């Protein structure tokens, strides 16, 4: 299995330079470093970017991409004015998936894991005002299996004084039907902040 396929399977966006895999760097440059515009091919990577990369834009994704949106926003204060996520992995340092992925791709040094964990990053956030919006289905198997841990992120946000909204949607799982039901609320959330 190729390195790129393995990283895709891990479903965590990691900076490959940290892992000493420089030859793969052009393929794995985080979206925040790419200056592509909405849905145009990126000159550095040849990949199509799906989000607008202008300063003051919003970040919003699902599941493990939600983890990436949170991490990108917290690691790059001011790049995004708003961030939301549906069913993100919120504390990978403390869940079985995250522990396996981080051990395999970053190593055993847990202090390095914190650089890629939204719950750990928010504890030290010192950027412009930011409110996090997290939507979580209460019947999501990944949630009930303690893989997503949004409550840990909420506790860290409250401790750090970073506003957070957690919508726990009873009866909803990890499906696109769930997202389709509530995506309008996320659009409204971002629009209100971006228009301010």
From TrEMBL:
Keyword tags: Hydrolase, Serine esterase, Signal
Protein name: S-formylglutathione hydrolase
Classification via InterPro entries: AB_hydrolase_fold (IPR029058), Esterase-like (IPR000801), S-formylglutathione_hydrol (IPR014186)
Keyword Hydrolase assigned: yes
Keyword match Transferase: no
Entry-linked PANTHER family: S-FORMYLGLUTATHIONE HYDROLASE
Residues annotated as signal peptide: 1-24
GO CC entries: cytosol
Function summary: Serine hydrolase involved in the detoxification of formaldehyde.
Sequence similarity: Belongs to the esterase D family.
Any GO molecular function: carboxylic ester hydrolase activity
GO biological process, one term: formaldehyde catabolic process
Natural source organism: Plutella xylostella
